[in-house]
Amino acid sequence: MEFEQILKLIDHVSASHLESFCYEGDGIKLSLNNKIAPVIVAGMQGQTVAAPVNKTASGGGFSSVEKSTDSNDHEEAFQAESNGNIVKSPLVGTFYAAPSEDADPFVKIGDKVKKGQVLAIVEAMKLMNDIESDFDGEIAEIYVENGQPVEYGQPLFCIR
């Protein structure tokens, strides 16, 4: 399944009243869930694309994603839609929102942050890597959940 086809599928599911949708085939597993903030599209070779959900007053729904063959155009559309500064994962690994299982998360939506402040941890090859803010502002969105695998360059936070 091509990236363009995945985006069309997201649009079609968005237009329907489905709460969730799963597809497996051609080495791709696609899961869309209307109850979770990010829509995760996992594909071959561990590639993951996060599409933000448009949170409407009627209870939510999937947002449409800019259709483009160029990944830079897609990223620009993602940033324009988020209307803020995006903190991306600097490496492939596992995202952790808190320093330990029983600890509070480093940040929550609405928290004020300063440049250099630790926002999360990405574990890669048993090494814990602090993810620091590159911006001053307020956490507007958190695109990944605790314990979720992340890819290089994947958006993690939106800071406004």
UniProtKB/TrEMBL annotation:
Gene3D superfamilies: 2.40.50.100
Pathway: Lipid metabolism; fatty acid biosynthesis
PROSITE patterns: BIOTIN, BIOTINYL_LIPOYL
Protein task: This protein is a component of the acetyl coenzyme A carboxylase complex; first, biotin carboxylase catalyzes the carboxylation of the carrier protein and then the transcarboxylase transfers the carboxyl group to form malonyl-CoA.
Cellular component GO terms held in the UniProt record: acetyl-CoA carboxylase complex
Record keywords: Biotin, Fatty acid biosynthesis, Fatty acid metabolism, Lipid biosynthesis, Lipid metabolism
GO MF entry, a single one: acetyl-CoA carboxylase activity
GO biological process: fatty acid biosynthetic process
Domain Lipoyl-binding: 84-160
InterPro entries, A to Z: AcCoA_biotinCC (IPR001249), Biotin_BS (IPR001882), Biotin_Carboxyl_Carrier/Decarb (IPR050709), Biotin_lipoyl (IPR000089), Single_hybrid_motif (IPR011053)
Pfam families found in the cross-reference section: Biotin_lipoyl
Domain of life: Bacteria
Lipid biosynthesis listed as a keyword: yes
Official protein name in the record: Biotin carboxyl carrier protein of acetyl-CoA carboxylase
